[in-house]
Amino acid sequence: MQSSLQAIVERHNEYKVKRAQKKYYLLKKDGDVQPGKIIIKLNPTAYYIWQQLAEIHTVEGITQALIAKYTIDEATAQKDIKGFLEDLNEIL
């Protein structure tokens, strides 16, 4: 059994991120930034994690990328990733 850090994660390709008014929104690919079309608003960390899901497919890989980008400790990075992935699982 894989450890949680070696778990493979991937993003759903039917969703996209769109920037509007200096904010990032996750929405269906055919959607636009309108009330009722927005799935979730992303903070900068969540947006960065979403970007990483396109290339890095393990929690450990994303953790290391987050540590390098934001100069944070491993526990904080893992907490942010876990929270974001749980939010996505509930919403998507």
Say what oligomer this is: single chain
Stated plainly, the CATH topology is called Arc Repressor Mutant, subunit A
Low-pLDDT parts are: none
Secondary-structure arrangement, i.e. CATH architecture: Orthogonal Bundle
CATH class: Mainly Alpha
Average pLDDT reading: 81
Terminal Cα span: 25 Å
Total separate domains: 1
Helix content: 40-55%
| Global outline | globular
- Rounded to an integer, what's the Rg over CA atoms? 13 Å
Quantity of strands, as a count: 3
Structural class: alpha+beta
What is the element string, with H for helices and E for strands? EEEHHH
Strand content: 15-25%
Number of helices: 3
Task: Supply the key terms.
alpha+beta; 92 residues
Report on this model:
By secondary structure, the protein is an alpha+beta fold. The chain has a single domain, classed as Arc Repressor Mutant, subunit A, CATH 1.10.10. The chain contains 3 helices and 3 strands. It has helices at about 45-55, 60-70, 75-90; strands at about 15-20, 25-30, 40. A 3-stranded antiparallel beta sheet has the order 1-2-3. α2 (about 60-70) crosses α3. The longest helix is centred in the last third of the chain and has 18 residues, at about 75-90. The protein is globular, with a radius of gyration of 13 Å. The relative contact order is 0.17. The mean pLDDT is about 80.
Put the structure in a nutshell:
The protein has 92 residues and is an alpha+beta fold. The protein contains three helices and three strands, in the order βββααα.
Produce the secondary structure layout:
Blueprint: E1 15-20, E2 23-28, E3 38-42, H1 44-53, H2 59-70, H3 74-91
